[in-house]
Amino acid sequence: MEQQETAILIASIVLVVIIILLIFLFLIFQKRKNSLLLQQREAKREFERAIAQTQIEIREETLRNISWELHDNIGQLLTLAKIQIGIAQGQPEKLQEVTDTITKSLTELRSLSKLINPDAIKSLSLSEAIRLEIERFNRLQFIEASMTGNSEVRKLDSQEEIVLFRILQEFFTNTIKHSKATKLTVHTTFTKDKIEIKAEDNGVGFDITNTKTKQGIGLCNIQNRGKLIGAEIGLHSEIGKGTSIKLVYFYKQKPETSPKLSIIET
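The structure corresponding to this sequence follows.
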């Protein structure tokens, strides 16, 4: 009888210990789960903030582009048309030149409307958006630009597309503002699994190990945007031999995916 009571007591103690241990493990699991959920919510908020900031920057860049178009291209064409009209008053045979200039101005206005119309921008694919930039560079004679490669084989998420376009836009801006390049080439490769885009210029290049240079040309921005969607970004530059960027993005990456930014030092 005494042995039975002892066995029951031991079994009760063991049961209580097991219950306490389970409660303890459950509390730990719940705490970790709550912490993970909190981190996920914070990561989602950060991603949304970064996307919003990227959209704002693209909008600001678009407004700058419109300003350049109006001042450096359409404005000059209309000024030329005004001069030609004055000449044509005494030389009627010059009227055709006026007509040609005005026709060209209208064509440029139609191209500019694509930048202004948000619905038109939203309907563009990534390759179409890049091609519009290339055409604009050539039209304004900023640089001799060209684009080769295939178009998308599958549709991108709009947020992914925004980030990828902004990374390339950042590189293009650096090329035009800082590289003193005369040529810019872009090659796109779209497959069912990934996107590969390589852009390169023939500019002066730079010392990629220089911290101030990295910050000045926006490498941090390029890196941070790559982190948003898990894009792999390879940047190469050599003084006197130009700069190139290679962007690789695998479809259906998560924002939390660890990015890779490989900088080839010279």
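The CA atoms of residues 115 and 182 lie 24 Å apart.
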